[in-house]
Structures are given as C-alpha cells and as structure tokens.
Specification:
Two copies of one chain form a homodimer.
Chain A (H helix, E strand, L loop, with lengths): L11 H5 L15 E7 L5 E7 L1 H4 L4 E6 L25 E2 L5 E7 L2 H10 L1 E6 L6 H5 L14 E9 L2 H6 L3 E9 L12 E6 L5 E5 L4 H12 L6 E4 L16 H12 L3 E4 L2 H7 L5 E11 L4 E13 L5 H8 L11 E10 L13 H19 L3 H8 L18 H12 L1 H6 L5 E14 L8 E7 L5 E5 L8 H13 L6 E4 L17 H28 L6 E4 L2 E4 L2 E7 H10 L6 E7 L15 E15 L6 E11 L6 H20 L5 E2 L2 E2 L18 E5 L21 H14 L10 H14 L1
Parallel strand pairs in A: 1-12, 10-11, 14-15, 18-19, 25-28
Antiparallel strand pairs in A: 1-5, 2-4, 2-6, 3-5, 7-15, 8-13, 9-10, 9-12, 13-14, 16-24, 17-18, 17-23, 20-21, 21-22, 24-25, 26-27
Helix pairs in contact in A: 10-18, 14-15, 15-16, 17-18
Chain lengths: 757, 757
C-alpha cells in the first residue's frame, strides 16, 4: 500500500544534496546573460530610448526595447483585460516597469549595458493608494481606464436589504485592510530561451503553468502556439506566483531571437520585490447580520483591490474573492461590490489562498463580534452555522463531502478551548477561525481536465507524463504513490516527468488545490488502464480469463494457482514482444462535471471543497507588544490523506506563512517607494518563528478525489490572520482590523486603551 | 490533397542552408571529448593496460577500459548470440577493436591520451577469409565457437533432390562472391552522453533505432531500461547501418558517468572504415533447375557470410538472406544451408537491401543462363515465372498486392528491350533483373506495431510524435502528408518530432522498408481519430449530428449550410475550453496480423511486399574496360506513390549505390589490412557517376498500407548488380560472378577470352 503512507517526497535526496538543477543552473554553449532595464520613475512618459552607447560596449550582443518587440497588449487569459506590453514603450507605470532588455556575454557586462542605455522620461504625477487613485482629478495610468478603475464586479443573491431590515437581528460592520507581501520562494523568477534552426522557440521557465505561459508567450510574441515550447525544470517554490507571463519571458525570447544565441535571464532578489507579483493588498468593507439564535442571515461586501499598474491576475482574483467564503457557513443573502484600482505599483499575483486569508480575516472577525453580542461561544456560533455534507450553498456549490463541523470539534477538543476559556489568564487568549477552499475549480480558461500518460517499461518500472507540475509541493510523490498503489509496484519504481508542452498534454497546472484531485485522478485512470492491460496480457500468457487473475506486490498471478505468477516486468516484456502485443502505454483523462465559476449565477465550479478549522493561543507582552504563539491547533478536511508526511508539511509551512502575513510581513511603500526589497527588513519569518503546531485531519472521504482525497495545500494559511487577531483580542481586548499586527501596533493600542480608561 | 503530391521534404530548407543540427553539432557546458583506443593487432590477447601516463596528461579527465565497465556480453537482440563487450578486455579480435576510451577537454588532448595508454598485447594468429577461418587447424576467435562458425541455418521445402533428378530439366550451378562496402553516410557515428542528478542516462545518438539501442545500452551497462533515455537528433544518413550498439555508446556513457560531465564522441571517417558496420561479404553457391518450358522447379543455396569478429546483425542477416528471393518467382522446391563465419575483421551491419543485392546478383544470373540454355528471352522467362497478386509463396508469404509482372512489362517497353536486342550493337548490352523486398517484417524482437500521438493546437497546427525515426529518408514528410491529408490542413502546419524514448512510444524504427506502412498507418489512425474529435466538437458547437458535418480545406462545416463553418484552429480551441471538452490529442496504434519471420516454417512476416524490375544498358570499352551505363529503366511496385519526388529520389539514389557496389566500391583487405579507409580510394561513386535513370511505378494499390502505399526505400539497389552484370555479359560475352566488376577485371577477361579464341 503506497497510498496513505508517510513517505518522504521522491526528490528529497537530490534536493538536500544539492544535485537538483533549477532554471538558474541551466547553461548552454554560447549562452548570453539577459538583464532588464527598469523605470526609476513611478509614472513617466517614455520620450526616447538611446541604446547606441550600450551596444558599443564590448560583450553586449543585443539591446531590445518595446519598440522592437511586437506591440501586442496582453493579459492573463483572454477573458480579462489586456493592458500590458512585454516591454513598456509608451509609459512607465511603476518604479521597476520593464523598459528595455540587454543580452551580454556575462552578467556584469549586461549590468554595465543597462547603465549605458539613455532613456528620456517625462515624469507624470503618480498615485499610490486607493484614495489618491480614486480621487476625481487623479492622473490616469491607462487612458482607457477612467477613474483608474481596472474592472468591477457586483452581484447579489437573496434579498440583502430585506434581511438587514429584519427586526431583532444583530448587525456588525467594519473595514479591514491588508498589505502586500511577497511569496518569498527561494528560487527567483528566471528563464532560458533558445530558438531552433527551424524557428521554434523553446523556453525553460521555472513556472507552474507551462501550457498557460505558452499561450501568453505566443500571444505576446505573435507566434503560433505550436511554435512555442515551454519546458518546466525543477522550480524552487512559487506558492501561486509563477503563473503569469512576466515581461522577462518575451523579452528574453526576443534577445535570443535577435542574437541567435541562447539567453538566460534570472531576477535578482531585489527585482523580485520591485517587479514580482506579490499578494494583493485590499480594503474590505463588510457588514454581517445574524438572528438572535446566532444563525447568519446576510452579508454585504465592498472590496477594493489595489492591482498596481497592470491587471495581470487581479481580475481572476476579484472574481474568486467576491464569494470568499460565502459557502463556509449557511447564509441565504449576500451582496458584493468589488473594484480593481490601478496604482503606480507593481502588478499583483497569486499567493497560497488566493484572497482567502484576506477575506477570512474580515469575515471571521464579524463572527467573533456577533458571538460577543449574542454572548455565545464563538466556536459554537461557527458550529451552528457551519455548512454540512450535502449542502448546496448560496452560490450553488455542492458540498459532496464536508468535514468542517468535525474540524471545529477537533480543534475545540485538542486546544482545550472550553477549559482554557473558563480559566482565563491575563494577556493570554484564544482565537478560532475556519476556511473553505476550492479544489480543482473550473475557472480562467474554462478547461478543468487533466490527462496523464503512463508507460510500463520492460524492466517493470513505470513512467508518468503529466502537464501538472511539481514546484516543490510534492505532486510527483503523490502521482507516484497513486500509480504504485494501483500497480502494486514499489514507489521507487515509479518516476514522473516534468511538464514540457512538447510532451505532456495541455494542463492547467498546480493552482486552486487541484493537482491531487484532477492530476491524481488522471494518473489513477491511466494506472488502472495499465493494470487492466497487464491482466489481459497475463490472460493470454496463461490462457485464462482475466477474472481469474490478481495483482499484488508487483506480481500478476492466477488466483489459487501459485505456480502461475509473473512480475509486472515479465508481463510488460511479454506484452511488448508478443505477436499482436505492444508496449503498455495508457492515457488517463479526467474531466469533472463541474460548471464554470461565475459568482453572478448559481454554479458549482469545483470537484471538491476542502475545509479547515484552527484555534490559536497567544500570549501578549504588554510592554513590548510581542506576541508569543503558544500553540496552533489545526484540523483539516482534505478528504483521505494520501501522505501524512506531505500533508503535515503543507499545513505547517503555510501556517508559518500565515503567521508572517499576520504579524510581521509587509512590503511597505513610502510615497510609492518600497522601503525594503529583500528578506531582511520585510518581516519574512524563518524556522525560529515556528510555534507549536498540531496538524489533525477529519475522517472525511470525498467521493470524487482519488482514494477520497481533496486538496490540502491552501488550508493552512487562510484562517491564521483571523485566529491570531481573535486570540490577540481575547488577550488584550483590542481587535485589529489592519494587517500586519506589529508589536508597535499593539503597544500603541494598549497605550490608547489605557489613555481612554 | 497532400498525399500523392510531389512536395519537397519538409526539412529541405534547414538542411541545405546548414541550419540542421546533427549529433556532432551538439554541445554542452563542460562537455568533454571522447576517443576510442583501437587495437593495432588483428588478433591478440590483452595482457595488461596501463592508463596511468594518460591520466597524468593535463586535460585528460578519464580513461576507461573493459575492466571498468560491466563485463556483460551482448549482441543485437536477445534471440541472437551474445559475443561482444563494449570494450574488449580479453582479446582484440580485429584491427580496430575497442580497447579503451578516454575523455579530455578537447579532441587533441584526447588523441594525445590515446598515445599514452600502454597496452601489452600477446599477438595471436589471425584468419581473414572463409578458407583460412574454416581450415581444420584455424585459430579460434571465440573459444565457444568451434570451427569459427558463429551460427548456422538450414531448411528445406518441397523435395529438392527429386526435382533436380527429374528428367529433362535444365540445371545451372555456380559460385558468387561479393565484397564489403561501406554505407558512406555523410555523418559519422557519434553520440553525446549525459547523466542527470538522479542517475538517469541520456544518450543523444544519431541512430535509427532508439528503442532498440536503449535496450542494448541498458543491457551492456547493467542499467534498468527505464534509467536510459535515448534521443535521436537529426541523422545524416544511415542506410541501415546505425542500428547497433557500437562500443562507442556504452564507452561514452561510462566516461560521462566517471567524470560527471557530458561527453561527446564522434568517429573520424577512418574509424568508420576500421570499426563501422559495413555490408557483409559472402560466398554463395547456387544451383537452379527449370523445366524445358522455362518454369522454375528447384533451387539450392549454400551461403557463407563473413561476419567479422562479432555476430552483431549477422544472425538476422543470415535469416533474411536465407530466403531471398524465393518469393519473387513461383518455385516449389528450395533448400538452404547457411553459415556465419568469424574472421579477424570488423563486424558487419545492415545496408539498404539487407542481403538482397548480393543474393539477387547470384539468383538472377542463373535465370539468364537458363534462358540462354532454353533460348528464351530472359525477360520473358522472368515474366513467365513471376509471382502474381494472390499468390502464397513457398514460404507462406501472402502477396496481397504484386505489381512485378507489370513492372517487367514497363521496363521492357520503356527500355526498348525487344527492339534493342534485335538490333545488336558491338560492346553494347542489355541486362534485366527483379527484386522482391519485405515491407514491415515481423522479425528480430517479434514486435511489429507502431504508435503515433497526434495533437491539434489551438492555432490549428498539428504535431505528431512517433518513435519511427527520420534519418534523411523523408519519414517526417510522409507522416506530415498523411496527417495533412486526413485533416485537410496545409502540409506546413504539420510538424513531426524526433524519437525520444522518454516521449515517443516504443518503436522499431525505419528498417525493413516499414516506416510508410507501419508508422504511416499509425499516423493515419491517429489523424482519423483527431478528425472524428473535430467533428464531434463541431457537432456540439452547432448542435448538429456528426453525420451532417464535413471537413475540407482546413475547415469543418455543416453540409449544405455555408454559414456554419469554422477553421480547424477554431474547433480545436473550442474543444479545449469547452465544459467537459479537452485538448485534441489522439493515439493511433497499428499492429499487422503478420506472423514471426521464420524461414524454417510457413510464415507471412510482412504487411506488404514490394517489387521492382530493372533493365540496364551498358557500353563496354574493350581497351580500357570502362563500363558506360547508357541507361537504367526502373519500374517499382511500392503501391500508391505518396510523394513522387521522394520516391524518385529513393530509387535514383539507391540505384547509384548499387552502381558503386557493382562497378567500383570495395573495402579491400590485404592480409587483413584495409587498403584504404575513406571515400577516396574505396570507389565511392558521386554525382558525376550518375547515369540516366528512369523511374516508373506500377499502378498497384496495396490493401494494407496507408492510401495503398508500400515500402520503396530498398527497391533501387538490389537488381542493379545482376542487371549490370547481365548487360556486361550481353555486351562482351563474359559473365562476372564476383563483385565489384572493375575495368581491370573486364580487360583481363577480354584478354583471356582472346587468348582462348
């Protein structure tokens, strides 16, 4: 049994021994080094670019600008606004905007070339925050986006106004603000571009979205899709971020085209902060109503998302955030109004939870307040309202499995919730929060399937080809476990290939917690087809019926006849060399019967929905404002746990990311300038900041996912901000509605409280 | 209509403009250069190898010997004798045998290292020809091969002795000898080896047998098959030769393993001659009987094949030669006795025709003699005996299509055979010969299928993945034509990938004239499945039944409704993004209902059999012995001609190879030493030696091959030696039974004739 076992990830040894090759480790003979010239202005018209001096530097092989590349505006997917050029040629819209790219024989020469490019800018007035951007006379980032509104979304379900007007309801209201944070993956963004003699482009990109990036790249370079090949090497982390077509990719492709040589461009850590795709910062106005018995009645949300200079993933983000987390609790009336606001900052991207940590931070605070007003235990209030298996939510989400009530009960019991709340101690507090996360959502392009190819070699080893990528999260291990389980072969006999658009089928890639469900099912179907082929071959070998055959421990055998038994290798070899036989090579296709995500109508976009509940316990030092996390208890409904070691790691690591987001991390802008651009000074937590975290699971079995599994990757982070804010409030009586909650904030709040007392 | 059109090969432009990259063009950062140390002795015991001096040369990174590599004996396929080590460690068995391999930072340092390796040999007496090798006291090359017999094959069908004893039959008898020739491909053998951090070996080999070489390599390196990946880059010609696991591949893999760096080894042209795999030289004793009416009655063959030092492909060759060309004519009684003889020369390999030119040279001479004895027109005699469609031959071959009689008629008419024979001119003569060649034979491993994957991108372009390789013969063009035909898209919108054992399905590769039939059918099935998917998608788009849909000129349309029509690209895109849709990606599997080749029993190993007839006209200069070819008329039954341009080129080029083989080419050994080792001096013909050649086709339509096609690649060469020898005999009255027929031979023969007169 490979499934359910706590096996280490299959690439652990290569990684910890430093043998894993990432994009930055790729070299090619004659390879050049690319670098990007970035705007020093927040907002400026590009008057002219003089590259002649740079081109005269020995070792500089090419300088390209937006005037050289196809002047195509593109965006993330064709359903969304197309507002971005690979290299900006009309205006720079943020400090860091891509203006030109150079290729040189080494990195220092490339850096020197950047200095020698003379760009004449005509500075324009910038806007950095919601209020400035939305002011009537605000300068516009894009001429075709009046009011700096990049897009809006509004809908309503039920009768929200009637609900709020009902007599005898508790209504709470508030505004919440969250900050930008970087995903802090270890490997910076990078790519290597090379063109084949027949004019095809191959890009090695440390991405988690090979098929999508191929589409965007082809668009931005005006190439037919089939002329672009995207290969995914090992990726040193992404957490959702590395899915967009950053200007560096088309620019590097163009440098390679112009020079006729391979070109590799890799971001510095500083560039990651200036020009990466950090988590969106937003302002959430929220209003919630509940009946006196605690049952939730209505919610209204007004959301502003600061998308920076270009829309990128922000439109998808707005859509998804619009109904976070309406389906976690039973609630009949909702209304949403959301706007994307352009500011002169870098564009934003995805980060584990995709708007969930921010929205949960707001929602769950209002539950705490309602509980207080009704004098209910806040965990009880959640339990009372929690969605249950079989529910169809206000949006039409069909919860075919739901372990949320059980999760709440687990963390109540494991944390000692009731007892600790009874024995209150000064400056010590408890908070609770929950989350629902989509798994395998039909979104973006509309495609939501997955396809895997499985091959059994004559040596009995198994190879899986899937376009669903590994970026450190363990997809290859999960796929190998599933195939090993079905074929009863040792896990180490199964290998999984990295996505390569020339080899692997079109795939969405690992976002939306979809890989185990969707990719895993495809692998399972392929493995089951291969197992059937093994049995059919053995039936021919021994002239028996397949019904009389079994497979176990890597051997096919005739039931009740121990003499007739062969290894998987022997059967695979026999199949290959048999008259009218053939190699065992099967395809598994998965395609869920979900509907396109559309919050304006009733739809059921996911194959499965995952849930989590968390309790946090903190102690606050009133003198220093320092928050000590005494413990975090998590209970996760990710269906059947395929690999406890990996699932634990997923939850633990994202809990730490949530802690950073809540208490310290901040890409802080001062008059538009980033205060810090690196791990130091932006509050990135490290291993010493890890509190005791308990990871438990509900005993849910999902009917759709492989072996009952659902997604686990995005369950750890979302509840943390609300749970910690609730615990801090429980400890010191102050609720913070803006992230991060720093020691300074706490000391200042305590001071203010004292002053008011 | 893409099929049937004379389109240039798809890679023509890249090739003629020098942009095509072959193995020798591959570079890797840190790559080392490999070289092989070869035995200077024909036969010698290896007493000791001292590599220390070589290892001390700066820049030399590794020296490996047969003592370092796994000491595994291997051969070509597991059905045949395993008598070869990657590097010889016990004995050197020919001048050129692989003894050690070095890797150094550049080629000159590697060459220097070879000089510094000290090998102590104990010379042994060698044998170079049949008589010496078969002598009772001959020294043995292999202790386990007494009499230097590497293998034998004998069988009989009908009653040969009774047939020869019949009254009133014409019986002719003779002995024929052929020489070794090199295939003279432009790109020498070479490979690049690299190991991945997880211990997998990737080999880039300019081969035409990726799956097979993977198997042999894995065996010789004691690696599981799944740990070896073989990638085929562009190949600069092979003509059958580049299918075996030459020691250079495992040796280079080992150098890469030991050094931890990529290593590339490429043969020099001289090494090609010393250590390549040239055409087998043989001695054929043949006896044929015919009735007075000309009908063939019986044949007996005694064949000696000089296999050199190791069996390699010779066992397969003996098997196939054993029944060449018993199925070309109706003949009821046959007997065969064949032996493989070891000599201290390099091993032999495949060359276009695979024994057919040699055997045809012998067989067809006897037909000429019988015709003369019966005073029949030799072409008439052939026509009388020619196999016909529907025949089942003496071996059980089922000739479901057969254009041989028509081919004979075409060349008779086109050459002016009757008229020219009537108007005899001095020193001018005509010869005729025919051939049958197998297409897609089930042989070697027993596997005879093919699998292709076809993908339609959102831009409407089509990509085909097949393990059946392109090595210059035009497979990619044929596959693209077939897919373009089925999908009605432009040819230039279809691309075909090179074989890569990580990507493409297990495949035999392009030998036995099987690619168009087997690989082409697989592509056709994949394309038909894709076309059906396009129609199904369009049926969903327009809510109509697929029966009402058509596809033409790259558009899917509703019959009779011109408004409803979409491009293939639009339909493919709609499929991908439709709810429950998906990428159009299909697999075609071809598996003929043939039986394993086994000349000892009745079997039908081929999907289809191809035929050709040729007439040659020559003038002989009696003073210089120079033969001027006045014309060659060919008529080829390769079924439906998919691309006349390519088919013509196949025939024309192989005719020239046949001319070289007949009149000039010779790897001549003197006391075991090669007299020459290069194009110069071995009689390689070039473009100026090309006579007028007419290429015609029969109007055969094969029921199995795609669009009625059969193999064409091996039809040009086999009849040439017999046709030219017959024409020379017709011109000067002397029949040569040993190849090549040089001017010296002719002058000497005319002198002798004169002396006898």
């Amino acid at each position: 049994m490979a499934v359910g076992k706590p096996v280490p990830v299959v690439d652990a040894r290569a990684k910890v021994s430093g043998r894993t090759q990432y994009t930055v480790d790729l070299h090619r003979p004659g390879m050049l080094y690319g670098k990007i010239l970035r705007s020093p202005h927040h907002h400026a018209r590009v008057v002219s670019i003089d590259t002649s001096a740079a081109l005269h530097i020995p070792g500089v092989k090419a300088v390209v600008t937006g005037f050289d590349l196809p002047r195509v505006r593109y965006g993330f997917g064709w359903r969304h606004r197309q507002d971005m050029y690979a290299l900006s040629w009309d205006k720079a819209r943020f400090k860091g905007d891509e203006i030109a790219a150079v290729a040189a024989v080494d990195e220092s020469t490339a850096a020197e070339a950047l200095q020698a490019i003379v760009v004449e800018y005509e500075p324009l007035p910038p806007v950095f925050d919601f209020d400035a951007a939305l002011a009537g006379d605000a300068p516009l980032l894009h001429d075709d986006a009046p009011g700096n509104i990049a897009g809006t979304l509004a809908f309503s379900k039920g009768d929200v106004d009637a609900a709020f007007a009902e007599p005898d309801v508790v209504v709470v209201e508030g505004t919440y603000e969250t900050q930008r944070v970087h995903q802090c993956y270890m490997e910076p963004m990078g790519c290597l571009a090379e063109w084949s003699p027949d004019g095809r482009l191959t890009m090695y990109i440390g991405s988690m979205n090979t098929s999508g990036i191929r589409w965007m790249l082809a668009n931005s370079l005006e190439l037919p899709i089939s002329r672009v090949r995207v290969v995914q090497p090992n990726v040193g982390g992404s957490f959702g971020s590395k899915v967009t077509n950053a200007g560096l990719y088309p620019a590097t492709a163009w440098l390679a085209k112009v020079t006729g040589r391979p070109v590799r461009t890799v971001y510095t850590r500083e560039e990651e902060y200036f020009a990466g795709r950090p988590r969106v910062n937003n302002r959430i106005w929220l209003k919630t109503a509940a009946r006196r018995d605690g049952s939730l009645l209505a919610r209204e949300v007004k959301l502003l998302n600061d998308v920076g200079a270009y829309v990128e993933m922000a439109a998808a983000m707005l859509e998804v955030m619009s109904h976070r987390s309406d389906s976690l609790y039973r609630i009949p009336n909702i209304r949403f109004d959301g706007r994307m606001v352009y500011t002169n900052k870098s564009p934003i991207g995805a980060y584990r939870g995709f708007g969930n940590p921010q929205m949960t931070f707001a929602y769950e605070e209002q539950l705490d307040r309602i509980a207080r007003e009704l004098d209910m235990d806040p965990l009880e209030l959640r339990l009372k309202n929690a969605s249950r298996q079989g529910d169809v939510s206000v949006h039409g989400w069909e919860l075919k499995s739901c372990g949320y009530p059980q999760a709440l009960e687990i963390v109540r019991e494991r944390s000692g919730w009731v007892q600790k709340r009874a024995e209150r101690r000064p400056f010590r507090g408890l908070g609770v929060a929950g989350t629902i996360h989509e798994g395998d959502d039909r979104h973006s392009t509309g495609f939501a399937g997955s396809e895997a190819t499985l091959e059994i070699f004559e040596d009995g080893r198994v190879s899986i080809t899937s376009g669903e990528g590994e970026f450190g999260q363990g997809a290859h291990t999960t796929f190998a476990q599933i195939a090993a389980e079905v074929l009863t072969v040792p896990l180490e006999d199964v290998s999984v290939r990295f996505p390569d658009t020339d080899i692997s089928a079109y795939a969405l890639g690992p976002w939306g917690s979809r890989i185990t469900i969707s990719g895993g099912n495809a692998v399972r179907y392929a493995a089951e087809a291969a197992r059937n082929q093994l049995l059919e071959e053995a039936a021919v070998m021994w002239d028996v019926r397949t019904e009389n055959l079994g497979i176990a421990e890597g051997r096919v055998f005739v039931e009740g006849d121990p003499e007739r038994s062969s290894t998987v290798a022997e059967v695979a070899k026999a199949a290959l060399y048999r008259l009218n036989g053939g190699v065992i090579r099967t395809v598994g296709k998965e395609e869920p019967s979900t509907s396109m995500m559309n919050p304006e109508i009733q739809s059921n976009p996911c194959s499965a929905y995952s849930f989590a509940a968390q309790v946090a316990e903190v102690t606050v030092d009133p003198d220093t404002g320092r928050v000590t996390i005494e413990g975090i208890w998590t209970a996760n409904d990710c269906g059947r746990v395929l690999n406890p070691l990996m699932a634990d790691a997923q939850v633990e690591a994202s809990v730490l990311q949530g802690i950073g987001f809540t208490l310290s991390e901040h890409m802080e802008y001062r008059r538009g300038h980033l205060r810090e651009a690196g791990f130091l000074g932006t509050g990135t937590p490290n291993v010493y900041d890890m509190p005791p975290v308990e990871v438990r699971y509900t005993d849910t079995h999902d009917p759709y996912g492989p072996y009952g599994a659902k997604g686990v990757a995005e369950l750890g982070q979302p509840p943390i901000p609300a749970a910690l804010a609730g615990a801090i409030e429980d400890a010191i009586g102050v609720r913070f509605t803006r992230l991060p909650i720093t020691p300074e904030d706490i000391v200042r709040a305590l001071q203010k409280k004292e002053d008011q007392a």
